[in-house]
Design brief:
Elements lengths: L5 H13 L7 E6 L1 H10 L8 H15 L7 E4 L4 E6 L4 H20 L1 H9 L4 H19 L1 H13 L29 H9 L1 H4 L19 H8 L5 H22 L1 H18 L5 H14 L10 E2 L3 H16 L1 H10 L2 H8 L2 H7 L3 E4 L5 E5 L2 H9 L10 E6 L5 E5 L1 H4 L5 H15 L3 E6 L5 E6 L1
Parallel strand pairs: 1-3, 8-9
Antiparallel strand pairs: 2-3, 4-6, 5-6, 7-8, 9-10
Helix pairs in contact: 1-4, 2-3, 4-12, 4-13, 5-11, 6-7, 6-11, 7-11, 7-20, 10-11, 12-13, 12-14, 14-15, 16-18
Amino acid sequence: MSGSWQDYTRRIEELAAAQGLKFHPVDFEAVPDSFMMEIAVYGLPVRMPHWSFGVRYIYQLIQRHMGHSRLFEVVFPGNPGHAYLAESNGLAENILVTAHVLGHADFSRNNLLFRRCQEQVSERIVEHAANHARQISAAIETHGAQRVEQVLDAALALEQHIDVDVPLRRPRYPEYAEDPKALVDDTFRKRFAALEPAAASAAPEARRRAPVPPHSEKDLLWFLAHYSPDMESWERDIFLAVREESFYFYPVFATQIMNEGWASYWHARLLREADFVPQQAYVDAIKCHSDVVRPIAAEQQVALSINPYHLGFVMWEKIVEQDGLAAARAIMEQDDDFAFVRNHLTRELAEELGMFRYSARSDGQIKVLEQDLNALHEAVLAPKYNFGAPIVSAVKVRNDGTLELAHDSAVDGRGLDLERSRKVLDYVQRVWRRPIVLTTVNQAGSTLELTAP
């Protein structure tokens, strides 16, 4: 058999299917390392142009040159899925990566959160995002790069501020407030209205317009797209395009430990069963597996850096060992990282892994503080709340058009980066085109207002 990794792809797919994995077809493609970094930074092979992606690219480039980052593959769930493999990968790495990608494909097809978000956005996200990019290129030709960039500044600054608990395509708020009396089961009033319609309508009550928003609204991309007083249709389209793509990315973010662990579990299992892989390639692939799922990202044991591949891999191994593969699949289909960690990162496993409550430094390193399992769960999950963003909601539009935003610091336990918050407010104010007031708290816990302009 030829030594090309493509020669093994079909056989690995057949083995995966025989082992019970259920996945949509996956298109595999080897691409230059530079393009791999672009895909990782932009999040998609073709995406809307914006300067912020260039900043992220430089960061990734520096990380790689410092030896902190190596991209073997980037995979995009869908039907079909798309997997991009680095041309610098060797045969063993690509055999491992192919098995790993099929684990991801099984996860994304069968996990409920993935399915719900993909059904609302698109199972053909690569093509969908390319349409968004063409739409924005057309807007640049019509309205100029500067105006389009201002809209993208605001939309991408808010890309985490969505609400996945409501449908992607949701209706606008009701124009009028509901009459509280209409909610009462008043038999006499119903009979009176039915018998004497003229009398019942003789004294019509004035309908009261509903406030905007009628309740605290955390889906800021949706709210601004639909209620900015002077937003033009092309600007609204950009906001809604960014929101759609955020809906697509949310499951990737919310299931990272589960998903990477599931893919790592399956690439290890498939390699053990793949007797058609040459011995040396198998040995090299197992070494690559060990590097991928190593528990720490630093030389010293004192400070840990959570590796989702390792944590998820060990958790899945333990679940399969104790409860069987069918139970593991049921968990994979139903859970996200919140349920997975809280329900299945046990005290015994935490002790085995040397994981307990720790403090996280800005560079991602973690120092163990105490042996409290619930605190450990919350420390692992804390960066995942609200898509990793502070909880900021639209709460009121004043009569003069001023938009009031509120930061719920009590719930998210996160302070605001004031410099970044002021910059984001400036971006948003350019599309709202009225004053904006954001209420938060300072380090002392006192109320603080940020305004724009």
